Amino acid sequence: MKNYLIKLLISTILIVVISHFLKIQITDYTAAIFMAIALSLLNTFVKPILVFFTIPVTIMTLGLFLLVINAVIVKIADYFIDGISMTFIQAIIFSIILSISQYILNKIFIDK
């Protein structure tokens, strides 16, 4: 549970920082917290289904279609969270930066 809360805190901070660089509109910090929670839930429950149904396209594009799936997950979370607004191109860039940053920071702060 402690590791999940640390990951959620890391995600929230990264959402706020990345949104400032990409000029994504976030109204307040609670929207960033809800965005982190929504992304966590969508990555757990919806992303595996999307990946399963798009296996042929993912194989044909040598895995690059996973970037589109990540952007779709971000846009779904954007749809449900009122305080955040971004375009699809911003969602693609946002998902790439967020994934790389989360990987690095989780390796640093999460003990195994």
TrEMBL record:
**Alphabetized UniProt keyword annotations:** Membrane, Transmembrane, Transmembrane helix
In this entry, which stretches build a coiled coil? Answer: none
Listed Pfam families: Phage_holin_4_2
- InterPro entries noted in UniProt: Phage_holin_4_2 (IPR007165)
Superkingdom of this protein's organism: Bacteria
Q: Does the keyword Transmembrane helix apply?
A: yes
The protein's name is Phage holin family protein
- In which organism is this protein found? Flavobacterium bernardetii
